[in-house]
Specification:
Helices cover 26% and strands 29% of the residues. With 304 residues, it is an alpha+beta fold.
Length: 304
């Protein structure tokens, strides 16, 4: 049965070792969306500075949002639904390359925490899903909001299926989604997990903004479950392509080798995907074994 006891906020705050994330914490039993709450919080600050690391946590979301306008199933079953406001003390526009890696760094941080709690095979799926044993256990939704003084802030929404029952999930996602408790065969202490998650998030983002994206990019490529997979890319209802996921680009985009027909026969081309739905297909192969990869891309395909 899912764990439905409320989050022990006092124990969470006592366990924090972060400098900023989670130190200013708003807990609500139920809300429409923690990301929407974060936007309203920023808009209501008037002349006050946006507090970097301000965090909103809820037991359930009545209208949780996923990527591309989808609904995020958010029942009160002992899961994690939170939004973190990022307003680092620097011009965000000057760090655009690092910003594009912010959600990917968040996915890595979530995988780090799940691994510490026993999910040693936690991987990331491009662009910002967290996978355990081939099933989705969490996702990240990043949005940008403008402060009253016209400065940008980033809202990172994060949902993790912790103690929920996969059998209670909607039928259309049940086969591809799981929870941490279901994989570990026991319930998980959310307060301890959140404190650990906040620390991993803070460390990864601090390093990303101070050193640039190189280290995050290298690890994401190593731990990305999408590389080497046959994938279906859905840009819109009218535009769907399939191909081989080759690599992650310098700004975090996905490189995919696709085939298209023209009057001369099959033609291969590499597309750069920055915003789309990505589904892993069966029949995947290691990209290093793909003899038909264009020579200019072979050196960019990870060997792991």
């Amino acid at each position: 049965m899912p764990t439905t006891e409320p989050l022990d906020v006092e124990r969470l705050q006592a366990a924090l070792v972060t400098s900023r994330i989670g130190r200013l914490l708003m807990y609500v039993a139920s809300t429409e969306s923690t990301n929407a709450d974060a936007v309203r919080y920023i808009q209501g600050l008037a002349d006050a500075a946006v507090p970097h690391g301000m965090t909103i946590v809820s037991e359930c979301q009545r209208a949780g949002r996923g990527r591309r306008g989808r609904r995020w199933h958010s029942p009160a079953e002992g899961n994690i639904y939170c939004s973190i406001i990022l307003a680092p003390n620097r011009q965000l526009s000057a760090a655009s390359q690092a910003l594009s890696w912010t959600p990917l760094a968040a996915a890595l941080a979530a995988a780090d925490s799940l691994a510490r709690y026993g999910a040693s095979q936690a991987l990331v799926k491009w662009p910002n899903d967290v996978m355990v044993n081939g099933k989705k256990v969490g996702g990240i939704l990043c949005e940008q909001a403008m402060t009253p003084d016209k400065q940008p802030a980033i809202i990172v929404g994060l949902g993790l299926n912790v103690n929920g029952e996969p059998a209670s999930m909607p039928t259309d996602i049940r086969a591809t989604t799981t929870s941490l408790a279901a994989e570990l065969k026991h319930s998980v202490d959310r307060a301890a997990l959140l404190a650990d998650l906040f620390l991993h998030l803070e460390r990864r983002w601090d390093r990303l903004w101070s050193e640039g994206p190189d280290s995050v990019a290298m690890e994401f490529r190593q731990r990305c479950d999408t590389i080497g997979k046959q994938v279906r890319i859905t840009f819109s209802e009218q535009e769907v392509v399939e191909g081989l996921a080759l690599a992650i680009g310098d700004d975090g985009h996905l490189k995919v080798l696709v085939q298209s027909d023209d009057c001369t026969g099959d033609v291969q081309r590499i597309i750069e995907v920055r915003s789309a739905d990505v589904v892993h297909l069966r029949g995947s192969r290691n990209p290093t074994d793909a003899g038909d990869i264009p020579p200019q891309e072979k050196s960019r395909v990870p060997l792991s």
